[in-house]
Amino acid sequence: MEYIDEMRRLNKRQLYFQVLNFGMIVSSALMIWKGMMVVTGSESPIVVVLSGSMEPAFYRGDLLFLTNYQQDPIRAGEIVVFKIEGRDIPIVHRTIKVHEREDGKVKFLTKGDNNSVDDRGLYKPGQLWVERKDVVGRARGFVPYVGIVTILMNDYPKLKYAVLALLGMFVLVHRE
């Protein structure tokens, strides 16, 4: 209730200033994200591990840092993040086989460290290999369990909206 009283005490000029301040924060975050995309060469430079398929290398909630430089060849043993056509969520798995053709095309097979079989069952029907165009990035580093907040917000959408509303209210009311 204190926040609502603070909002009522703001005059129009202060309210506009706070809304602009909030817009600056959002646009700064977007600029940082786009800058990271340019530097890393990846459309998604940071991803969260959503399942336990890569345990013990990565656990659910680990935050991965990715790069996707096209000139770097993908080798067996590397951890890649790739998207399958028709699926929204990228998959984080290890490359177990690489197939290089003479014309330069590279295809590879992936598998989760904690899975008993390769990923051919996850690929779209009829697809036996992942192609370079499907790769979002390669894992270059990670921070354990930081992404658990993202998982909680996706599992409980009301929590996400409550946190966003509280952050928005804080930015609008906070005068410093």
Topology record:
Layout: H1 2-9, H2 12-40, E1 46-48, E2 63-67, E3 79-82, E4 91-100, E5 106-111, E6 130-131, E7 135-143, H3 148-155, H4 157-173
Helix pairs in contact: 2-4, 3-4
Protein architecture, described:
The chain has a 7-stranded antiparallel β-sheet with strand order 1-2-7-3-4-5-6. It starts with a helix and ends with a helix. A hairpin with a 5-residue loop joins β4 (91-100) and β5. The longest helix is centred in the N-terminal third of the chain and has 29 residues, at 12-40. It is built from 4 helices and 7 strands. The protein has 2 domains: 2-40 and 164-173, no CATH class; 46-145, Umud Fragment, subunit A, CATH 2.10.109.10. Helices cover 35% and strands 22% of the residues. It has 176 residues and is α+β, with helices and mostly antiparallel strands.
Question: In brief, what are we looking at here?
Answer:
It contains 4 helices and 7 strands. By secondary structure, it is of the alpha+beta class.
